[in-house]
Amino acid sequence: MSQTPADTTASDQPFIKVADLHKRFGANHVLQGVNIEIGKAESVVILGGSGAGKSVFLSHLVGLMLADEGQVLIDGCDWKQMDRKQTYHLRRRFGMSFQEGALFDSLNVFDNIAFPLRRAHRTLKRGEIKDRVEECLEIVGMPGIANLTPSELSGGMRRRVGFARAIALEPEILLFDEPTTGLDPIMTSVLSEVIVDMREKLKATTITITHDIRSAEMIANRVVMMFQGRLVHEAPRDTFFATQDPIVRQFLDGNAKGPATAALIKR
Ligand SMILES: Nc1ncnc2c1ncn2[C@@H]1O[C@H](COP(=O)(O)OP(=O)(O)OP(=O)(O)O)[C@@H](O)[C@H]1O
């Protein structure tokens, strides 16, 4: 039986369910059996070293990559069972923000944020688009900058405009891939607060990849650690950072020596 997102809203499934997810690129077995369930409006932060498979995992959540084995269910819908139209509708429930904001440099801030609105709602009037763009800029704490071009923005501002574009279609699920990388500690805290604010205003489920421990502490309800393609440790935010799990401890303390290094050398 074919599924549509609307078929499943009343289901008692977890909102997001990933079961025994595997992904290989040739001989590189990147995801080696990822399992996680995420509830509606939860905020999960994924920590992990370079090459652990975090971005590949995020791509599976939004259906940009499909599982070799296992399942990724969003509100009961399996990406692998979706036809093109269903894929389009399911993907519209996501808002994504990548490193650097990924803005279109040839468009001003207004047109960057209006871009997904115009594409998804062809009949929207100019005034409706203007209202929504202004609302999104308010939410990310940057009202009144719609006429600026990306080249006139600082790194932190570009990220916020990227956030504003990600929430233009009022997504239910927000994905952030290293939203604060390369920013100073103050701007990192400001952006982490913006993420919390956006999540609360949209009541969105949020999944964030970050290397920044302080940002993780601010954003997360739950933290998970990815290591060599598996989620090796997870805990509520308040207990995660006190864990004695040796791999997590090495990562949090930034030690060059430890079980994570030993495992990487053996690979
Ligand atoms: N499209 C692709 N084709 C082939 N290999 C890929 C592809 N995307 C990712 N990989 C490989 O998958 C592995 C995991 O990459 P991924 O980007 O998910 O790591 P990550 O945990 O996000 O690391 P980082 O923190 O450095 O961004 C790497 O070995 C990478 O080379």
UniProtKB/TrEMBL annotation:
The keyword rRNA-binding does not apply. Keywords: ATP-binding, Nucleotide-binding, Transport. Pfam families: ABC_tran. GO terms for molecular function: ATP binding; ATP hydrolysis activity. This is ATP-binding cassette domain-containing protein. Residues 16-253 form the ABC transporter domain. PANTHER family: INTERMEMBRANE PHOSPHOLIPID TRANSPORT SYSTEM ATP-BINDING PROTEIN MLAF (PTHR43023:SF6), PROTEIN TRIGALACTOSYLDIACYLGLYCEROL 3, CHLOROPLASTIC (PTHR43023). It comes from Sulfidibacter corallicola. The keyword Glycosyltransferase does not apply.
